[in-house]
Specification:
The chain has 6 helices and 5 strands. By secondary structure, it is α/β, with parallel strands linked by helices. The chain has one domain (27-244): Pyruvate Kinase, Chain: A, domain 1. Strands 3-2-1-4-5 form a 5-stranded mixed β-sheet. A hairpin with a 5-residue loop joins strand 4 (158-168) and strand 5 (174-182). The radius of gyration is 29 Å and the shape is elongated. The protein starts with a helix and ends with a helix.
C-alpha cells in the first residue's frame, strides 16, 4: 500500500489537473459560441450571393469561367481542415481514418491546421502546403490559401479540389465530410439560385451591370471562397465543441479519482492509527 505522503501528493496533483481541465473547458465553451456566431453570420452572406445568382440563373448555362471548367489533365488536391492543437478527443483521429478510407493516396494534400501533418507524412501522402488559421479566422490568413487553390486550378496543375473537414452537427456530434470545391457545378449553382427561401427584396427593375459574364467572373470566386470559409468555421466549431466535451469528461474523471484516492487515504490513515493503538496497548501490557 502506498504511503500517506504519496497518496496526498497524488490527490494534490489530480486536483491541480482538474483545475486546468475545468479552465480549458470554459475557454473552449466561449470559443465554440464565437465560432457558431461566425458561421451564422456567414450564412447571411451566402444568402446575398444566392440572391444575385437568382437573377443570373437564366445566363448560368451560357457563361464561361475557369472555375467551371472540367479538366482531364492534372492531379487532385485535397484540403484537410484539422486543428493546430490537441486535447479535443478523437476529432483528428476520426478525420485521419476518413482520409485513409476515402481519399486518394496519389493526390496532393493541403492542410489547414498542423495536427495531422506528421500522420499524413508517415502514410506517404504528398503534403504540398500547410496553413495555420486563428480562432477568429481573419481575412489575411485566408488570402494565401485562396490564391494557392485558385492558381493551381486555373493553371491546370489540379483538375479537382476537394475539402475534407469535421462537419458540425451539434455540441456532441461532429462528422467527417468530403465536399467537392472545384470545379464548380452548374447544376448546383442553379439549385442555389432557385431556392424558394431566398429573400428577394429587389424591385422588378433589377439591373445587372456591367454584364452577366463580368458579374459571374466576380461572384464565382466569392462563392467558392465562402464555401471554404464555412467549412473552416464548422471545423473550428467542431474543434471547440470536442475540446469542451473532452475537458468536461477529464474534469469529471479527476473528481472521481480524487474521491477514490481520498477513500484510500482514509483507509490507510485508519490502518496507521489502529497499528499505533495496538503498539501502545502492547507496550502497556508488557510493562505490567
Amino acid at each position: 500500500m502506498a504511503s500517506l505522503r504519496d497518496i496526498k501528493r497524488r490527490i494534490k496533483s489530480v486536483r491541480n489537473t482538474s483545475q486546468i481541465t475545468k479552465a480549458m473547458q470554459m475557454v473552449a465553451s466561449a470559443k465554440m459560441r464565437r465560432a457558431q456566431e461566425l458561421a451564422l453570420k456567414g450564412r447571411t452572406y451566402m444568402s446575398a450571393l444566392a440572391n444575385v445568382l437568382k437573377h443570373l440563373q437564366d445566363t448560368l448555362t451560357d457563361v464561361t469561367s475557369p472555375l467551371l471548367e472540367a479538366r482531364e489533365t492534372g492531379k487532385k488536391l485535397i484540403i484537410v481542415v484539422s486543428t493546430d492543437r490537441g486535447l479535443c478527443g478523437g476529432l483528428n483521429s476520426n478525420l485521419f481514418k476518413e482520409i485513409l478510407l476515402n481519399c486518394d493516396a496519389d493526390a496532393d494534400y493541403l492542410t489547414v491546421g498542423i495536427k495531422l501533418n506528421s500522420q499524413l507524412a508517415r502514410c506517404g501522402r504528398n503534403l504540398v502546403a500547410t496553413f495555420t488559421i486563428g480562432d477568429t479566422v481573419e481575412e489575411a490568413e485566408l488570402k494565401p490559401i485562396f490564391q494557392f487553390i485558385r492558381k493551381g486550378f486555373t493553371d491546370g496543375t489540379y483538375n479537382c479540389v476537394e475539402v475534407i473537414y469535421q462537419k458540425f452537427i451539434n455540441v456532441m456530434v461532429q462528422r467527417p465530410d468530403t465536399v467537392k470545391l472545384l470545379p464548380l457545378n452548374r447544376e448546383d449553382l442553379l439549385k442555389v439560385a432557385a431556392q424558394d427561401d431566398i429573400e428577394d427584396d429587389t424591385n422588378p427593375n433589377f439591373l445587372l451591370e456591367p454584364n452577366p459574364q463580368t458579374l459571374i467572373n466576380s461572384i464565382l470566386p466569392l462563392y467558392f471562397g465562402h464555401q471554404l470559409v464555412q467549412m473552416i468555421l464548422e471545423g473550428k466549431a467542431s474543434e471547440q465543441s470536442a475540446r469542451m466535451v473532452a475537458m468536461k469528461a477529464a474534469t469529471e474523471n479527476a473528481k472521481t479519482l480524487i474521491g477514490e484516492l481520498t477513500l484510500e487515504y482514509n483507509k490507510a490513515r485508519q490502518t496507521q492509527i489502529t497499528n499505533e493503538l495496538l503498539e501502545i496497548t502492547t507496550a502497556m501490557k508488557a510493562m505490567e
